[in-house]
Amino acid sequence: MKQGIILAIASSFTFSIMNVFVKAASETIPVSEIVFFRSVIGALIIFLLMKRSNVSFSKNGIPMLVLRGTFGALYLIAYFFTIAHIPLGDASILAHLSPFFAIILSSLFLKEKMSKEMYLLFPFFIVGAVLLINPFSYNSFSVYALIGILSAFLAACASTSIRFLSATHHKYEIVFYFLAAGTIVSIPLMWNEFVIPSFTEWFYLICIGVVSLVGQIFLTSAFTHENIIVVEVVRYIGIFFNVMWGFIFWGEGLSVFSITGGALIIAASIILSKQKSQPVSIKRAAV
């Protein structure tokens, strides 16, 4: 199996677990505070991992690292903001527009193109995603929806910058800049609404920080092994994981469409993962 595909699926599954804790914590903890603890806990852990693995901070490419961190932090805030103001299902529809932006950005800046196998399997991913999120029931057309679209664009920008940096920088350093940026950006936002967490809330926040860090490492690693378009499209499987957790923990509906859509994405991901791996190369456009 192709390692990049496996890592992309692993990241989606891990982030879906994080979403369970985020949903539980957001009932009493402000979104900005969740972003802060998600970022600061992960930043401390990744810093220790860097020290343990003797990974030093680069002296080159700092502007791009900062840009990657900023894109990631702004995406996180925009996505959580959207979730807080429109139905979760509608927010999910908007967030999963990112692969389309990623296709455009990776083509412009990385000169990456979809393989023949990806062209053949792409319709299965799209149909599966449509069945899972059921956009025909979308009912949140508002200014908040525009923020949701912005979050998808920022996610694609972050993914493109990760792929760009992966050829020259260690994955730990790339993740650290994202988490450090998230910590800095969230501080002023939570300044006037900070809530002292209870024991249970501390548990949720710590789990969010640790689990999201694992997911971020999986995702960053996926971009070092596989084309950005492939990784982004395979991550549609995360919709199925989220639907599954919603059914298990909150009794949210699990329709025939959801099961069929999830099966299509899983099957397409398995087929894609069995394709012969191609050498990873990145042709950067001038920036």
TrEMBL record:
Keyword Cytoplasm in record: no
Cell compartment(s), UniProt: Endomembrane system
Domain of life the protein comes from: Bacteria
Pfam families tied to this protein: EamA (PF00892)
Membrane-topology descriptor: Multi-pass membrane protein
rRNA-binding as UniProt keyword: no
Keywords: Membrane, Transmembrane, Transmembrane helix
Membrane-spanning residues: 34-50, 62-81, 93-110, 119-137, 143-162, 174-191, 203-221, 233-250, 256-273
Domain (EamA): residue spans on this chain: 4-133, 145-273
Family the UniProt entry places it in: Belongs to the EamA transporter family.
Record protein name field: DMT family transporter
